[in-house]
Write a structure and sequence with these properties.
207 residues, mainly alpha, 8 helices
């Protein structure tokens, strides 16, 4: 296996790892209001997130940007909460050809901005893998491609489930959005409450 392939696999495994489900939750929060019918909107949204995390993944891995990893680990679940809460303000468009809801541009902007934060989280993991390796281009490229492949699979699964429930089983779209967003918010809050930095700031304890 080549170096590129090895890091591609590591990137794929990292974003799809159920033990580190924070990135999965964020992608779910981004896609909750959509189904397969909305695939064009989702491509724009996911592309915005990809641009964001690709920028900081590269900069941080190359050592051009350095932020305390503890803050990144706290900020990531906060981005999940904000994104999921935005879903509660979504209103189902009337008619088949409504171009966008009122929060579309805000959603794209947040995806890009929050992508910058998630990219810093990816870079912490990648730098731990790299160690003292001299060549960084192939690992960085491979890892990023692996992230994108995993991300696309997660998006496809979420949109397919939404399509099945909403378009086939006729579940109310707002019910699906509110229930899933509520679950995501709850899980993200759990990550925040159990975060060591949050506990040190608030004087709390996970026990």
């Amino acid at each position: 296996m080549s170096e590129f392939q090895a890091y591609l696999q590591l990137g794929f495994e990292h974003i799809t790892d159920s033990n580190g489900y924070d990135h999965i939750l964020f992608i779910m929060a981004l896609c909750t209001i959509y189904t397969l019918i909305d695939w064009k909107k989702v491509i724009v949204l996911v592309t915005a997130f990809t641009i964001g995390h690709s920028i900081t993944l590269a900069l941080a891995t190359l050592g051009l940007v350095s932020i305390n990893p503890d803050w990144i680990e706290l900020l990531i679940p906060i981005t999940i909460v904000i994104t999921a809460c935005l879903n509660f303000f979504y209103t189902v468009p009337k008619g088949s050809y409504v171009k966008r809801d009122d929060n579309t541009m805000l959603r794209y902007g947040l995806a890009l901005f929050f992508g910058l934060i998630h990219g810093l989280g990816f870079s912490n993991y990648l730098r731990a893998l790299l160690g003292k390796e001299a060549g960084i281009f192939n690992p960085l490229l491979g890892f990023n491609v692996g992230l994108e492949l995993g991300q696309l699979i997660i998006v496809f699964i979420i949109l397919s489930i939404a399509f099945l429930l909403i378009e086939i089983l006729r579940v109310q779209r707002l019910s699906w959005i509110h229930i899933l967003s509520g679950i995501i918010v709850g899980m993200a809050f759990s990550l925040i409450l159990n975060n060591e930095l949050f506990q040190s700031i608030t004087g709390g304890s996970a026990d």
